[in-house]
């Protein structure tokens, strides 16, 4: 049996660089970094990494070499993502019937591990692998994946220095 020296996924979740970046992004956003439900979030991160088909070492290398741009991208992604309104998805004059409207849940900040998902998006964008990004979004069953990918590309390009 051949043993790989890959970084275990759970170790990536607890990696000091990941934690530093999450603190940096949440501090710039002036939002709380929630540390509750870490086991559930760790499992979610494991699923995200597996679905991305990206080696954990490659994710960390991208973060090490592009930390400043990644943080800017993460800040913009969170800010712009929370600015999206439900009316944006419906043609003018159409609306959601009251019974079908989603319940608004108050956000309590961002949760630990969020940067792993952001880093997956970032990896695909840095390496100009938009087809792979779209495949990842579709595998993870993101609604309106192509539209979301377009937004990611815009945020990525807007944060380049």
């Amino acid at each position: 049996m051949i043993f790989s020296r890959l970084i275990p996924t759970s170790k990536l979740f607890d990696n000091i660089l990941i934690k530093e970046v999450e603190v940096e992004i949440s501090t710039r956003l002036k939002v709380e970094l929630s540390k509750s439900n870490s086991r559930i979030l760790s499992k979610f991160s494991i699923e995200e990494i597996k679905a991305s088909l990206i080696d954990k070492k490659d994710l960390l290398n991208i973060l090490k070499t592009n930390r400043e741009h990644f943080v800017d991208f993460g800040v913009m992604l969170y800010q712009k993502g929370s600015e999206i309104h439900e009316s944006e998805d419906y043609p003018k004059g159409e609306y959601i019937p009251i019974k079908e409207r989603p319940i608004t849940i108050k956000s309590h900040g961002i949760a630990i591990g969020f940067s792993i998902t952001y880093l997956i998006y970032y990896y695909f964008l840095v390496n100009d692998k938009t087809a792979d990004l779209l495949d990842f979004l579709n595998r993870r069953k993101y609604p309106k994946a192509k539209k979301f990918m377009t937004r990611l590309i815009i945020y990525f390009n807007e944060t380049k220095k």
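The first strand starts at residue 33 and ends at 34. Helices lie at 9-13, 16-29, 38-52, 56-65, 67-81, 114-126, 130-139, 145-158.
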